[in-house]
Design brief:
about 350 residues; mainly beta; Jelly Rolls; 2 domains; 6-stranded mixed sheet; 5-stranded antiparallel sheet; 25 strands; elongated
Length: about 350
């Protein structure tokens, strides 16, 4: 009998529940039309070199894999809430001397669960379908070329479909990483499947937040964000290491000793700040006394210049996605309905104090 997931309801950012657009497409820029200079914008160059080339039609462009060992990839946000049957269609121009294949990597962990050969063809449409055993979170598609010869791929579209995988053996991604969807403890590499938000359903976590499972100086809380297709991982993290503005689960994670609304804060809205109000400094931001009031003295906690009497808040810039997770670029953020990532915005100051 499978072990059931632990139910832990705490404040945490909800992950995507179903990530495809209305048409079921799960790959961004299926026509290879988006180029940032000499590089693809939506596809990542894994190795080798590529270039934009014309195809059989003036309105379409393709990507040529130039080197004998070259590959491009895209990590898609599809998960088992969307569907478990996926079909991809593409058009290719491949010489006899070139060996080209499309790899399917569940979870994007570097293990190709299935490789589909792209045969020698001259702009011949190809279509494949495969099933994935649920639950799963995210699939990386890898288009790779081995050997010499011309290899051009165009119109690579992957989409979820209903009823297209009858009789097809499902691919198994193996034990799920932290932050991925799960249904039971056995689905997770950590052996713990739990619900940590009201919206996201059960996910794999690295420790049990209801028990003292971490060692000395550690606490079960939010770790650094991983791939944006997954929830922010929960694992054993150093106690009191999170500064003002960083995400948290509970008080011991924060240097301030206060985790309010899922963010390390200096006050709680239900406790107040005397005559001043305790409110968020910005969306998904920390709770502060008299936030934005230009009233806090030197050394007081702040999340932006407007909090301080001096109009100067000293600290590192706080960059985060719309769901509140920290980020360095748009690529670190969950995608929208058009499968476009971001935005990663500077919203204030992290670990700030008034100058």
């Amino acid at each position: 009998m499978r072990a059931l997931p632990v139910t832990i309801i705490v404040a945490a950012a909800a992950s995507q529940v179903g990530a495809t657009d209305c048409g079921g497409t799960i790959t961004r820029d299926p026509g290879f039309d988006l180029w940032c200079g000499e590089s693809l914008c939506a596809w990542k160059l894994e190795r080798g070199d590529v270039r934009r080339v014309p195809t059989w039609h003036t309105a379409d462009s393709g990507v040529e894999l130039l080197d004998a060992d070259s590959a491009i990839e895209q990590f898609t946000p599809v998960n088992s809430h969307d569907a478990t049957c996926i079909r991809f269609d593409l058009i290719a121009d491949v010489d006899e001397t070139a060996q080209v294949e499309l790899g399917v990597d569940i979870y994007g962990d570097g293990t190709i669960e299935r490789a589909f050969p792209i045969p020698t063809a001259h702009w011949k449409p190809l279509s494949y379908a495969f099933a994935v055993q649920p639950p799963f979170t995210g699939i990386r598609f890898d288009i790779a070329k081995h050997g010499p010869g011309r290899a051009v791929v165009a119109r690579m579209r992957a989409a979820v479909v209903e009823g297209g995988c009858d009789g097809v053996a499902a691919l198994v991604g193996g034990p799920a990483p932290l932050g991925a969807l799960c249904e039971a403890a056995g689905d997770c590499a950590s052996g713990i499947c739990a619900t940590v938000s009201f919206f996201g359903g059960p996910h794999c976590i690295g420790c049990d937040v209801t028990k003292p499972t971490c060692g000395t100086g550690l606490f079960c809380g939010l770790d650094e964000p991983g791939p944006p297709e997954r929830d922010v991982p929960i694992a054993c993290v150093p106690t009191a290491a999170r500064v003002l503005g960083e995400q948290c689960l509970r008080d011991p994670e924060c240097a301030s000793g206060t985790c309010a609304g899922g963010v390390c804060s200096s006050c709680r809205p239900d406790a107040g700040c005397g005559a001043a109000a305790c409110s968020r400094a910005y969306d998904h931001g920390p709770y502060l006394c008299a936030a934005g009031g230009h009233s806090q003295p030197r050394g007081a906690p702040c999340a932006g210049d407007d909090d301080c009497a001096s109009s100067a808040c000293r600290g590192a810039p706080r960059q985060q996605c719309l769901d509140g997770r920290s980020c360095a670029s748009d690529a670190n953020c969950p995608v929208d309905v058009n499968l476009a990532p971001g935005p990663c915005s500077t919203v204030g100051v992290e670990g700030g104090s008034c100058d």
